[in-house]
Amino acid sequence: MEDKAIHEMICAYASGCMDKDNFINFKEHINSGKDLPYSDLGEIQNIISLIPIILEQETPDPEIKKRVAKKLIELNSEIKAKKKEEKKKTEEEELIIPTPTRTGVSEDSLHLKRIEQERSDEYKDIVPRGDTFSPDKTQKIDKNKLYSTQGASFPAGAASTETKSKTPVVTYLLLFLSILGLILLAYFFYSTNKELETKLSEMKDQVSGLQANFSANQQFINRNMSLIEFFHYNDISVVNLENADSTDASGKLFLSFEEREALIQANNFGILGPENVYEVWYVTNNVSISMGIFVPGLDQKYFRLNNFPSVPKENIELFRVTIEPAAGSGGPTGDLVLFGSLVKEQPKPVPSSRRRRY
Amino acid sequence: MSVYQELNDIELMEKISKYDSRAIEELYNRYSALLYTLIKKISNNEKLAEDILVKVFAIVWRKIDHFESAQGNVYGWLVALARNCAVDELRRSRSVVGKLDDYDDDYEDFFIIPEISSKTDKLDFETATRFKASVETALSRLTDAQKYVIHLAYYEGYNLEEIADKLNIPVETVRNKISTAIQNLKDQLST
Description:
Radius of gyration of chain A: 56 Å
Largest interface: A-B, 51 and 65 residues
Helix content of chain B: 55-70%
Oligomer: heterodimer
Order of helices and strands of chain B: HHHHHHHHHH
Radius of gyration of chain B: 18 Å
Distance between the termini of chain B: 36 Å
Shape of chain B: globular
CATH architecture of the largest domain in chain B: Orthogonal Bundle
Strand content of chain A: 15-25%
Structural class of chain A: alpha+beta
Shape of chain A: elongated
Number of strands of chain A: 8
Number of domains of chain B: 2
CATH topology of the largest domain in chain A: Immunoglobulin-like
CATH topology of the largest domain in chain B: Rna Polymerase Sigma Factor, Chain: A
Order of helices and strands of chain A: HHHHHHHEEEEEEEE
CATH architecture of the largest domain in chain A: Sandwich
CATH class of the largest domain in chain A: Mainly Beta
Number of domains of chain A: 3
Number of strands of chain B: 0
């Protein structure tokens, strides 16, 4: 009689015509893994699932496949978020290390079993049962079994004694390892620091060397800046000045007749008193015309002479540098220091093809 | 023939569990006609049947971890899932508003996603198709009353009490008729 009732219940469940309450009870019973002819249930589920195989199959609109694909794509982000949440939850749970028991079952797994049991007990109280199906007895037995298993799994006293005896050794070992670790760490930091200090010192030396080079280059540029700037002009004539006295003075005169600018290079010029200056002249038609004055200092080598009086360069016979009073003079009156003249340009050879035949 | 077409149902489900979209496409190609026909038979509405079919494959994709590959009854699981979805819609359309539970994740897990007993033969689409003629014969040998109660339960989604009310017979008689009909089917198929 009871077998018949269970069979009827299985048939109702498999064919999907159980009312809600009985369905909940039956499913809870299956989930709890309690006594049931599961092979019968599986067989009947298979038979029921074969019922629609006799229907004349109709292929759905191809658009439905596209809709399914679209839906699955939409679900992907939801699934990812869910997985992420589950992973996070698992990681959080793993942080609580379960206490191993002698049976190899962790406290957590037993706790989960307990929760499952409590959940099924909740349903048992809330949901009214049908007349033909009542798994209450088996549930009660299993509940007791579960709690008795729990009791056997926690030999609390023995475990704590064993732990206490091991504690000092473990503590000393941990302490020793910690100190050793700290020493190694300190040595590592010390050696690394020393190495870095050496490298830093080397780099500082390199920087100092580079700075000195840079400074020397800068000084060279500053000293020769006037010459560099002067060479921007297109028409530059150079006059090599010759020494006219017994001093070591020498020099060159650079001229731009278009710009009426000149630049004199003064090497080893003697330092003059405050009442005298050096004056540069050009001589044309036996008349000396002043181009400008300059006062050499210790570091300065080039002196600019601006706006000298305009004259065609072919008319210049001579250039000279004399020592003159600072107040100025109408013509050269002092000692001649240097002199020189423009190098006459050689006429360019006429190409053979252009030569006129006589 | 693609590699996926050569895979059996369980292999496809294993690949779907790793979110392999080509595997679920092959599952759709294999099962969509059967599931659509079943859903349409229950819902009797083409548009609704299409929506439910989309929903069924979405559940497969989302809740694939509810399918136990070791148990391996892909055919039974999918047919039951499609039937449950369609019947749930039908019951909701018949029910007074507010009387049925809200459709949420928990509801879906408990009432919609089927649990198939592992202690049985594994059915896949190919095997089930081979049974078609036998099932037709077995069903044709049932009495009209047995056929009708099976129809009311399976396709119309009525529960025992509702069938009893409809036929004006006791619940026990309905329960007995369904049980006998299934037993007859079982006997016919095993001969």
